[in-house]
Amino acid sequence: MKKQFIVIGLGRFGSSICKELFKLGHDVLAIDSSPERVEMMRNFSSHAAVANATDEASMRDLGVRNFEHAVVAIGENMQTSVLCTLMLKEIGIPLVWVKAKDLQHQMILEKVGADRVIQPEKEMGIRIAHHMDSEKVVDY
Ligand code: ATP
Predict the structure, then answer these.
(1) Distance CA 136, CA 118 (A)
(2) Which ranges carry the RCK N-terminal domain (predicted)?
């Protein structure tokens, strides 16, 4: 079933999520403050827009409140990611998933209402370790 997603922050993590969701046939609204990043996502999203993710008026103008699920993929600037998450929850987006850079960031995001917090490097490290564990070791 086709769903509607917003991806905010189009770095390596956000752009990869955006492209994959779009490839899977979903509607994706891609947002970044950098015009170059937005341009790069033009053909890999339903709509790509330049906006400051902490500016509530711009976000409302983009119609974010009609979306069911948002991903905030701004890892480095903790203040921006926290403010954006808080605002999306205040606007009423049911599912807000957010990238965190560390445990402190994660705890703050959970306090402001993030529905899922992701630490990509940590989660991928765990998955890779399990994958390595399950590989057959060939002893020469
Ligand atoms: P990566 O996924 O590449 O590891 P990152 O977690 O290091 O990225 P940043 O590089 O800090 O995260 O930001 C990711 C994207 O978010 C960048 O493209 C940046 O332009 C965008 N961004 C940062 N601040 C804002 C903002 N206030 N509004 C919209 N986009 C923003």
Answers:
(1) 29
(2) 2-118
Q: What is the DSSP letter of 9?
A: -
Q: Alpha-carbon distance 98 to 119, whole Å?
A: 9
Burial class (CB in 10 A: 0-12, 13-18, 19+), 103: exposed
**This prediction's pTM:** 0.93
Residues with CB under 6 A from ligand 1: 9-14, 32-34, 37, 52-54, 73-77, 80, 99
Report how far ligand 1's centroid is from the alpha carbon of 92 (Å).
Answer: 23
What is the best residue among 32, 50, 71 to mutate for testing ligand 1's pocket, by most ligand atoms within 8 Å of CB? 32
Stretches where the chain sits below pLDDT 50 are none
**E strand intervals along 3-124:** 4-8, 27-32, 47-50, 69-72, 95-99, 116-118
This complex has an ipTM of 0.95
Task: Find how far residue 106's CA is from the centre of its chain.
Answer: 14
Tally of CB atoms within 10 A around 59: 23
